[in-house]
Amino acid sequence: MARAKERVGGRATAVMSSDVFDAAIVGAGIVGLATAWQLINRNPGWRIAILEKEDRIAAHQTGRNSGVLHSGIYYKPGSLKAINCRRGLKLMVEFCRQYSIAHDICGKVIVATQESQRPALDKVLENGLANGIRCRAIGPDELRELEPASTGVAAIHVQDTGIVDYPAVCGKLAELIRAAGSEIRTSARVLSMNRSNGSIHLNTTSGTIAAERVINCGGLQSDRITRLSGARPQVRIVPFRGEYYVLRPEARSLVRNLIYPVPDPRYPFLGVHFTRMINGEVECGPNAVLALAREGYRWRDFNLLDLGSTLITPGFWRFARKHWRTAASETWRSLSKPAFVRSLRRLVPAIREQDIRRAASGVRAQAMLPTGDLLDDFAITKTDRIVNVCNAPSPAATASLSIGETIAAHVETIAS
């Protein structure tokens, strides 16, 4: 079998000719897996290699997701978020039905707890109706019928919201991808990329492969992978940790489905809320604090390179000056269980400290612009033979099958 010698990462690396794939995808989260599946469906016979630095798929954002099937009610009509969320929800429900994956379109309520929130609540409803979502305004009496333990001056009932088992979705996608003749290589961190003889050679911790095309779905590491591809990302990933509690079994009856606050339009996070999960637990949270590592799920998780990258981000200090009060409040709520409970009681007054216990945290890959603004829409760029998914914030899991279609369309314009 022929071998081609290539200079990769400063050393000669042997590349097996049989390892020239039609496409290589960096990252085996739900977006990477969905993209591979859409490429295979659209291009029968393609061989795809998915490269994942962890020893398993869906190890970070996807595997720590709360499992919400978002309706798209918050997103600006016509935005990539709105379009992909609506189509992605439809595709995800169809996928789950086809492969018997647990899901439930249970609906949720968005609750205004004080009169001053009514204008923002009205704006959310307006957005939802413009996006074609089944949603309607309800009063306190109907809110109590839907969620007896919740109180508010007004609310929106969103019928199109649901819950799902995203790890199970990823497991089925991986099974289908492998059955179609493609590969998922774990413990394969990408170290460098080089173009040679019409292909891109990816040097990883488990060997080197060559591919006609590369798709970066690296999530928390997406900006770094973009730089490895030779492009200069316009954003820097800043990690925010979301910390959760769950209701103890004896308190789960306080929440029937999903209860959300009215979001603050100045901030890209939805605020502390309640989510009934597909396994029957009820999650409470998250708050949002700056993570000291891109994969830092606890305060003691610290990575000097990651923190340094955040602190030298051009817009970070502008962002910090603008939002320091919110940051201080979120940090205090992270450190103080009573403060966290007070936030929860705005939506469900009967919650007590003894009703909740700590749960696993997640880290959100938030793209920050040089201005200090947080990029709040999907961002996909293309250079020579490489497509970089530079930002895929929530609702990326809901929208993943639709985002996969969009990415696949970009990839298919790259000549082999």
User: What does the overall shape look like?
Assistant: globular
Annotation field: number of helices: 10
Low-confidence stretches: 1-17
**Amino- and carboxy-terminal Cα gap:** 22 Å
Strand content: 25-35%
In CATH, what is the class of the largest domain?
A: Alpha Beta
CATH superfamily of the largest domain: FAD/NAD(P)-binding domain
The total strand number stands at 24
Task: Please state the structural category.
Answer: alpha+beta
In round numbers, the mean pLDDT is 92
Radius of gyration: 22 Å
Largest beta-sheet characterization: 9 strands, mixed
Q: Judging by the overall fold, what is the CATH architecture of the largest domain?
A: 3-Layer(bba) Sandwich
The share of residues in helices is 25-40%
In a few lines, what is going on in this structure?
The chain has helices at residues 30-42, 80-98, 118-130, 140-146, 166-179, 222-228, 304-311, 316-335, 337-345, 396-412; strands spanning 3-8, 11-16, 20-21, 23-26, 48-51, 68-69, 103-104, 108-112, 135-138, 154-158, 162-164, 183-185, 190-196, 199-204, 207-211, 214-216, 236-247, 258-261, 273-276, 282-290, 356-358, 362-368, 379-383, 386-391. It is an alpha+beta fold and 416 residues long.
Describe what you observe in this structure.
31% of the residues lie in helices and 28% in strands. It has helices spanning 30-42, 80-98, 118-130, 140-146, 166-179, 222-228, 304-311, 316-335, 337-345, 396-412; strands spanning 3-8, 11-16, 20-21, 23-26, 48-51, 68-69, 103-104, 108-112, 135-138, 154-158, 162-164, 183-185, 190-196, 199-204, 207-211, 214-216, 236-247, 258-261, 273-276, 282-290, 356-358, 362-368, 379-383, 386-391. With 416 residues, it is α+β, with helices and mostly antiparallel strands. The protein folds into three domains: 3-61 and 167-235 and 377-412, 3-Layer(bba) Sandwich (FAD/NAD(P)-binding domain), CATH 3.50.50.60; 108-159, no CATH class; 236-374, D-Amino Acid Oxidase, Chain A, domain 2 (2-Layer Sandwich). The protein is globular.
